[in-house]
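Need the bound structure for 1-O-alpha-D-glucopyranosyl-D-fructose, inputs here:
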Amino acid sequence: MNNTRWYKDAIIYQIYPRSFKDSDNDGFGDIKGIIEKLDYLKNLGINCVWLSPVYRSPNRDNGYDISDYCAIQEMFGTMDDFKLMLSEMHKRGIRLIMDLVMNHTSDQHPWFQSALNDINSPYRDYYIFRKGKGKKAPTNWTGFFGQNSWEYTSKTDSYYLHLFTKEQPDLNWDNPKVREEFVNIIKFWCDMGVDGFRCDVINLISKDQRFLDGKNKIFLVGKKYYINGPHLHEYLHQINKEALSDYDSMTVGETVFSSIDDILKMTGEDREELSMVFNFDHTSVDNFFGVKWFMRRFSLRRWKKILGHYQQGLQNNGWNSLFYENHDQRRSVGRFGTDGSKQYREISAKMLATSVYFLKGTPFIYEGQELGMTNTDITKLEDIQDVETHDIYKTAKKLHMPKGYLKKTIANGTRDNARTPMQWDDSEYAGFSKVKPWLKVNDNKLYINAQIAISDPDSIYHYYQRLIKLRKSEPLVKDGIYIDLKKKDRHIYAYLRKGQGESLLVIANYSKKEVKVKLKELSKPYKILLNNYSNFNPLLFKPYQSVVLKIKE
Ligand code: TEU
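Answer from helper R.:
Posting the output first, comments after.
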């Protein structure tokens, strides 16, 4: 079937199934729990779900370590539950994209078990085994969790590559059989009716086979040999042609450290690789070198520059994703210029949503974001579940980082911030479960929860509803040309989505002060389409006020 590019009209909601809704009260979210909440999602207005991995997995990295790509993890339910969920979604006009981890498998995957123990195994070449250099690993590469990226195995006196935990061995995509496996896996799910995939760290699949030492020393040593590697585009194209293009499917690639040029190659309309990608330049606005452990103050000017760079770079070709939360990021409340205080949490969350979601691209909303959920209130390292946090902690200790700094960085950086159970109501476990969940519920469930949000017409939830409705009904959101009207301003983000005769004008005050705004566009006739306050004075913006106006050109 021909690709209809439906993803350009999609509003995608990410579910992290462990934390969404526990239907059988074992402390973990599950598929039946998701089914219970589909009407909630439908009412919000979204029309597509990205589901973090639900495949069979030993859960070293909460499902991002897959041991069977065509089975459902028991904790989440059965294949029948999955099929029911899919049909209940489709009944409500909601599509489903799954999260596919193709760069690595679990070490418990039968392919790896066979490869590990037998040098002649047909699966040995599915992975990247190499002899060491004397007593040293084959290269000096380090991985994403700060660790050395080679693991020694005495059985065959060799090392295998793992860019994440050692329980997540990297696959060898230069082996055509590996590519064929994924063609079949993709077909398996698409034949069942799945609408597409979020492709985990997809730009790591092609490694430079010379295995040279990296010269960069700070983080991800050797990254130029394994990020955006030599055959990446060839392999993406193959997967597209041999599997995806047979269906009306979409893909969003998670592509770390990619430039506009890389992204244009991956998402350009004539390239037949991916539909769009997640790039992390904007979520790195408050760190150095794209590494969240090196914290930096937010700057609105930098934020606008980065967002604008991708808006302009993909204006005529390729396609943007629009997001600022996911299961790896800390919560946006109190981040990206917003204010976490009781007074401004809601108004500033609405402001951030307005200024990002009227850009050109497909919006992604992470579970709980529509409620303004906040970072975890866990304070002890031993209560943190995230494997990345523990791995990074080990590395940082070796580097003798000062304790106070370490504590602050960990609290900021731990991915558990985004993974606390969804807050449905104010009961003991927030209506997520009747038993103690796998990760502590945030105490602020008492006033931040879906029940309260739904009953309050002024809540972030209802604001999202209005925003989504507007986005769906306004073609300029899809097609209007992006023009930043105030690049240098330290408080105001103002941009046009220019059309013929009419344009959208989006203005957001990123500060807790009242700010005077001078814009010649505001002297033209306008209609207010969205406003996070009940009144509007075009000359003076209230704290965190944001509006979307339709203006006559
Ligand atoms: O994340 C890839 C990735 O780059 C992250 O490791 C990122 O650097 C880090 O989480 C930022 O804090 C993907 C998944 O989204 C993540 O959950 C997995 O752990 C990882 O791949 C391995 O599959």
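Comments: The mean pLDDT is 96. The radius of gyration is 23 Å.
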